[in-house]
Amino acid sequence: MHRSALLTPLAAVLIGCTGCAVVSTDVAAGGAVATAPASQSPPAGGTGAPAEEQVARAVFDRVNAEREERGLGPVSWNDDLAAVARGWSQEMSETGRFEHQDLQQVLQSDRVSGFTAMGENLFRSTGPVPAGTIHAGWMRSDEHRVNVLNPGFDRLGVGVFCAADGSVWATQEFGRTTGADRPAVASTTPPVEPIARPEDDGPTC
């Protein structure tokens, strides 16, 4: 697990990212194949929206800025992946366990439909941090960048949980839809640079 400290005017905020998880399912062995989910609109994320929604939208936009910078197809928002992501962020907060969930189980459940592969990135901090800090932390981590810049993914859901103790928990759930017109899900690590959105800015809890 990677940990670093971000010095703020008020306190030292401990930040952690844990290595990405990627799973796929054998479609041929799985029987009937669900139809790929249609593209959906991401949350509006305006100033009147809940903070968690604002942060999730800002992170989503930054992911596509990175993909555009590298000549990759954008990911579309998916509500089911977002629900899985937010639920896991909240569960980690409540249990204090900073670890990946069983994505194979998620992929084969009725919580998501029409996906053949998933990838997951996790983030936590002990205090409020802006969306840019969450995104930059993932981009500067080799294991997480594999998901953010993976040419095989075409959907994304982001879930953020702002806990009562001030801690922030965030999860990205990437997905590859059935019949996706994309290259295979890759395991190679893209280079760090260029990071299109390295700024520690944006909405916060």
What is the terminal separation in angstroms? 24 Å
Q: At CATH's second level, what is the architecture of the domain at 48-177? A: 3-Layer(aba) Sandwich
CATH topology-level fold name of the domain at 48-177: Pathogenesis-related Protein p14a
Broad CATH class of the domain at 48-177: Alpha Beta
The run of helices and strands is: EEHEHHEHHEE
CATH superfamily of the domain at 48-177: CAP
Number of helices: 5
Strand content: 15-25%
Principal-axes shape call: globular
Computed CA radius of gyration, to the nearest angstrom: 16 Å
Which residues sit in consecutive blocks of at least 5 with pLDDT less than 50?
A: 1-12, 27-32
Order of neighbouring strands in the sheet with most strands: 1-2-4-6-5-3
Number of strands: 6
User: Level of helix content?
Assistant: 25-40%
Q: Which structural class do you get from the secondary structure elements?
A: alpha+beta
Largest sheet: 6 strands, mixed
| Overall pLDDT | 87
Keywords: Signal
Signal peptide: 1-28
Biased composition (Basic and acidic residues): 196-205
Domain SCP: 60-174
Compact description:
With 205 residues, this protein is α+β, with helices and mostly antiparallel strands. The chain is 28% helix and 24% strand.
Please give a structural write-up:
It contains five helices and six strands, in the order ββαβααβααββ. With 205 residues, it is of the alpha+beta class. It has a domain at 48-177: CAP (Pathogenesis-related Protein p14a, 3-Layer(aba) Sandwich), CATH 3.40.33. Helix 1 (51-69) packs parallel to helix 4.
